[in-house]
Amino acid sequence: MKTHEADIFRKRSLTERWIAAVLFTCAAVSIVVTAGIIAVLLFETMDFFGRVSLSDFFLDTQWTPLFADKHFGIWPLMAGTMLTTLFAMLTALPLGLSIAIFLSEYAPERIRRFLKPIIEILAGIPTVVYGYFALTFMTPLLQKFIPDLAGFNSLGPGIVMGIMITPIVASLSEDAIYSVPASLREGALALGSTRLRALRHVILPTAFSGIAASFILGLSRAVGETMIVAIAAGQQPVLTLDPRVPIETMTAYIVQVSLGDTPHGTLEYSTIFAVGSMLFVITLTFNLIALYLKKKIQRGVL
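Request: output the structure for the sequence above.
Response:
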């Protein structure tokens, strides 16, 4: 009997070691792939800056690497990216936060369990569908109210991008608000506060770190979005803050050059790695800020 139990124990130990080895391999593969991506970006970006000075990249206000008169100023692409991201966040933040407040504070539990998965379905819609929705529906709709709005612009894609990232903001904010201890709600109501005052002065401040983390993750998602802006925002890298005119974002430029018309190894081709490195740094910064806020929640430092 003892021998049989020992055999079972050895088999379980061997199985657990195999499972641990498989999990370690998966984790190692993800680390190696990430390191490889960073290495390729770093190598190609250094090659780019070996031929283009930092002053030309950061101080020039024109981006025309594919033209005869070449300029490598990143600011037109940065402006286009930030403009579409601004409209996306102006759409997603109030909409997502309102949904989160309704689901966590006002909706019955049955409705909450029903609506939350439906809202999260929006995150599963392919972004190319959102892109054509922005081009064929949102922009013509906006042109009825803004007659001088161009067919390609930053306003329509920005709003549609905001609709796309609303589930991220709503889901994470709802989790943060829903996790606020019930004792805080009950204490505020016992002191004579209305539900609205308790929400404004107790619940939202307590859940602020989680809400801020959802905003930053949504912002990071908007900055890195590709297909919506590639389809509906245009391919004209101009330094402007006018949402009515065509622009080009960093991701849309990478798509444009990656289509195959630009030969590998040329200066024009290496520009996508310089732009990609800038995009990587921006999104990494946002993700680190979101991770910091998430850790504050876990430590209870709100």
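The mean pLDDT is 85.
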